[in-house]
């Protein structure tokens, strides 16, 4: 690329949504010129990027920004690490391939907040279907698509039914004991190209300035897809953000947008490890009994269970009667400890992830300077509200009861094994009878984010219902930053159809 270039559309960020939107725009009938700018490199030549559990093997690598938060008072003043994909493909390079939509009520709340039914469950359905190439027994054609680009297979249907994990039935029975039942183109891609800021003339976006000073002009739009941390940084460096922050760093104000960087939400969670009584039975990965190749064709997990608060806790927090059935937490059983400090992967332990689905705590993202090379200032503010604390304590107790106190799992699991290592001295094993205080202390000392961040350029606050940045022209945001609320699923399954719908809106405006 020369020192100056021009495109119809500039897409900033080659992650999940940016790649999709750039592709759809370049395939549209008017064949616009699209330039996709990605700060990281192309990982396709790296064999580690295509292997089993790449999310674990690539954490902290050249493909990971690994930002750090400010110390978080609610989690024993710990500094949290944020694994963010620095490569073409973005976070999809580091995640574990989970495809979990939110509940229909979550999307309906989104639509109600922004006043547009296109973001409701029914509004999302066509885009869900367009995204998926779904395979499962008795799949509902109204809910799923069968010729989209994303191949999605349930665990039970994978590998012609051969992907059968050893604790699948006992875990199902354990949840049943606790009362939980099943619920049946013209395009240019530039890597290693960080964007400093968007340029404007009289409030109209007309291009971007790269990290090295080169400029690219946009005849039609600039579309920022840099994620929940990158998008607010670019907006602020471009002069769109809270005036107090822009003035502090000597940035000329293009548009005062106080909500840029606020409303940061993430799925806060606790991982627990459980020692099996007899490792020779092959319940956990790392045992020589794991010989079937089908077991290694994806993240070894089973039974994603979502649940609401019991009535007495819902009433304590004044949750309306018609909202008391909303699922507020998720528990996943894992046959391999996912990097829990001090827990070996040798067939002796299984693990669980217990996660807040609809956290009410909010944090913020800001810039440290106007320099594109400086990492963001992240204040996540996890576990800050009484509702979040009570929900995660209750969910953790449910997890402990499942693994340690049900007739199905109790004979298999010996005990919970606390993590060990720097800063983790004095942790005692949790039991099904542990006090709320003991559970809360463990959460504060070991709880962590699930890397599902969003909300920092929220729809209705920063962008309108078609992703257009309010107060300026020809600038959109189209990534997790625009999610106005947390959604009770894993974001990948929502972000693809969201991007499909936004791309259709952009094409409609051509």
TrEMBL record:
Residues binding FAD: 195, 491-492
Keyword Flavoprotein: yes
Keywords: FAD, Flavoprotein
Chain positions covered by the region annotation Disordered: 411-433
Occurrences of domain Glucose-methanol-choline oxidoreductase N-terminal (ranges): 85-108, 227-241
Keyword Flavoprotein in record: yes
UniProt record similarity statement: Belongs to the GMC oxidoreductase family.
Protein name per its UniProtKB record: Glucose-methanol-choline oxidoreductase N-terminal domain-containing protein
Organism: Xylaria grammica
């Amino acid at each position: 690329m020369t020192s100056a270039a021009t495109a119809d559309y500039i897409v900033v960020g080659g992650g999940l949504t940016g790649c999709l939107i750039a592709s759809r725009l370049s395939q549209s009938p008017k064949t616009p010129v699209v330039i996709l700018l990605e700060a990281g490199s192309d990982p396709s030549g790296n064999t580690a990027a295509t292997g089993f559990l790449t999310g674990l093997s690539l954490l902290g690598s050249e493909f990971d920004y690994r930002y750090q938060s400010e110390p978080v008072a609610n989690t024993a003043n710990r500094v949290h690490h944020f694994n963010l994909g620095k490569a073409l493909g973005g976070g999809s390079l580091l995640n574990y391939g989970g495809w979990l939509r939110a509940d229909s009520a979550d999307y309906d709340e989104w639509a109600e907040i922004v006043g547009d039914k296109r973001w409701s469950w029914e509004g999302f359905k066509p885009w869900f279907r367009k995204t998926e190439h779904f395979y499962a027994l008795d799949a509902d054609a109204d809910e799923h698509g069968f010729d989209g680009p994303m191949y999605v297979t349930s665990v039970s249907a994978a590998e012609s039914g051969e992907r059968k994990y050893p604790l699948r039935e006992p875990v199902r029975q354990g949840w049943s004991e606790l009362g939980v039942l099943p619920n049946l183109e013209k395009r240019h891609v530039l890597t290693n190209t960080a964007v400093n800021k968007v340029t404007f003339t009289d409030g109209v976006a007309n291009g971007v300035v790269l990290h090295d000073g080169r400029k690219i002009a946009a005849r039609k739009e600039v579309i920022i897809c840099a994620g929940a941390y990158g998008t607010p940084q670019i907006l602020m460096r471009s002069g769109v953000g809270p005036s107090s922050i822009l003035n502090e760093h000597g940035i000329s104000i293009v548009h005062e947008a106080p909500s840029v960087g606020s409303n940061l939400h993430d799925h806060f969670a606790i991982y627990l490890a459980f020692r099996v009584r007899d490792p020779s039975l092959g319940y956990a990965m790392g045992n020589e009994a794991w010989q079937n190749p089908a077991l290694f064709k994806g993240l070894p997990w089973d039974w994603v269970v979502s649940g609401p608060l019991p009535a007495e806790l819902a009433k304590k927090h004044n949750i309306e009667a018609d909202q008391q059935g909303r699922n507020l937490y998720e528990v996943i059983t894992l046959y391999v400890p996912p990097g829990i400090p001090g827990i070996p992967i040798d067939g002796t332990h299984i693990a669980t992830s217990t996660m807040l689905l609809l956290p009410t705590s909010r944090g913020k993202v800001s810039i440290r300077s106007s320099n594109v090379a400086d990492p963001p200032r992240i204040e996540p503010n996890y576990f800050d509200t009484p509702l979040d604390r009570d929900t995660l304590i209750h969910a953790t107790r449910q997890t402990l009861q499942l693994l340690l106190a049900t007739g199905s799992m109790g004979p298999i699991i010996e005990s919970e094994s606390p993590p060990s290592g720097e800063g983790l001295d004095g942790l005692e094993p949790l039991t099904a009878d542990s006090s709320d205080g003991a559970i809360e202390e463990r959460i504060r000392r070991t709880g962590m984010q699930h890397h599902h961040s969003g909300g920092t350029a929220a729809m209705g606050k920063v962008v309108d219902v078609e992703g257009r940045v309010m107060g300026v022209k020809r600038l959109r945001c189209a990534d997790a930053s625009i999610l106005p609320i947390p959604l009770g699923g894993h974001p990948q399954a929502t972000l693809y159809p969201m991007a499909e719908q936004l791309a259709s809106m952009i094409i409609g405006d051509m």
